[in-house]
Write a structure and sequence with these properties.
mainly alpha, elongated
Amino acid sequence: MSRRYAVLIGIAALSIAVLCAGGRAVAARAEAAAGAGAAAAKAGAGTTAGAGAAAKAGAGTTAGAGAAAEAGAGTTAGAVGYGFITPTMSDRTVTLTGHDLSIEQIVMVARHGAKVELSAAARQREADNYGLLLEAAAEGIPVYWFNRGAGDQRETVMFEGDPLSPKNRALIEKRQGGTFRAGALGGTGPEISAEEVVRAMMVVRANEMVYNAPSPQLAQMLLDLLNRGVTPVVQSRGTLGEGDLAQLGNVGATMVGSGEAYFRGARMTAAAALKGAGLSPIQPFAADDNALTSSNAYATGQAALLVHDAREALEWADVIYAIDLNGMNSSVTPLSRIVQQDRPEPWLNWHAARVLDMIKGSYLFEPDPKRIIQDPESLRASSIRQGATWEEWGALRDAVVFQANSSDHNPAVNVGASPEDSWELSTPQLMRFYVKGGAHSHGQHGYIVSNANWDPYPMANRIESFVVALANMDIAVMLRIERFRNPFFTGVSAAEVLPEADRGFYGYAPVDLQQEIQSLMVPIAPFGSAIVGTVEDLQAQTRIKVQRARQAVATTFDLLAFDLLEGALWLDVRRAQDSTRSFGAAPTAAWNAFRRRVPLRQRAAERAAQPVVSISGTAVEFLRSTPASTFYQGEATPQGAATNPAGARGEATPHGAAADPAGARESLAP
């Protein structure tokens, strides 16, 4: 997977020369890409999607002048337009174990600046793995991407014998140092323009690295960069979704003082950033280039942000649906137990009960001769569409959590595994990779074997499945916005009741947004290009998939803003018709909070006095900055319950039983 690195080693001297010149070449490339980066922001080039998130990113941006002055001559231009995080959780620490990192914890570190540490067991596992790696080479065991090459160089002998012998140590240190420095040239622009994306990648890699064999200095530096606020400049493209080598190579360059980084709101050379943070460049060793870069952490980190933001969008979709039901004076029969018992699907039944609970106490349960017997399909079926989207969200969440808490590294290192543990391990083929144990491993034995764990499935599939479900939900959202304009369903026009209400003109916008989402739901065709001597012939396109999915979620927020504007107006109408009407606790609380942010302007004079702003933009900002869980939390989402196909031969297929993080949901409030 890393022939590119072998090539880059040969040009390491050129890399050093360019970067020692003050990073001017890299800075110039960044400035040239700045415009493209801004244009690609919503398209997912590493930015926080949506207007509200952009506002949040901007709020965390510091001027950078003080840091620039403090850092001195190493500072370069280029921080303008970069989305710095606001470290509201810098006093909290997430302990990485390799097996229980949650979506919320990734967000805490990536978006809110929480610190990280390794558990004692995780640190020991890394040390044991590292010892087994050194021992394997000493015993003459062929190890991919260590004493053997990588990619089409996998049979090339890189060195023989003990890696700690003076000759081999010098050779390895030189090669590793050159590879890390050359990492600054990896990938292609535009540069990632949101700090949270780089930090998400780094915390995921730090957690997954527990399964690998990093040197102690590499493992510690990854933690230090996160904890000291040094964020490498990383290119957004140049990965095929089968190992994000280029992006993690950019991070590795910062570790040795090569390339550029952000520190305290300013962009500067990596060497200056390390110095400002009180850190010294590391000397990578052994297979550190492999330990750092053989991972899909760039895609996985973004997928974690996707899961978090998608949940926020779905929670708002539910609350706004409850508002819409009240606004339409809807028939609530589709949500009733009678209907749900006829179709016992856990997620659909959960969602119907969830919405029913939101509108409990609403006037919808009182008789009204003007209420029609049946709403348009977009209202009646919204719970089914939204419940189905929640189900795909749950599958995506589980896949991302799995990806972030398992190894996507090649080779696999397993300390303590023995030939008798499984029949295949005692065969001559597997015994080739058995490490008997010696001084470097403190007597511990195990296996180091090549694998394909970098193939990012099922996560890559789940990302696209979720977008398909989301698009099917969003078409119902768009259509129910339009149904409010038809008195056949509402029984009255809004203008008849509130003639001076300012609705604005946005008739085309919801349709346009839905068409954008529709364009994003088409899955990317599977593709394989036989590159690197035809060895690497599969590509997962995970970067593209996750960035499209984040764009779809961002655009869903935009669409929901129009839905909220319409639904809130109709709550005003229904209350004006009858001041005693109740809408249920959650819809009422959300409506009141929204009206404090976006008042119902009824007089022309008041409208004229208002600044010219996008009311839909204000609505989006409200949705992105105010979690729907503020108004309603409800019960935890269902747990998976997949069944084994009848008549299946052999062992049963696995049963889904992923725990729901919602039940132990951590607050992200500052």
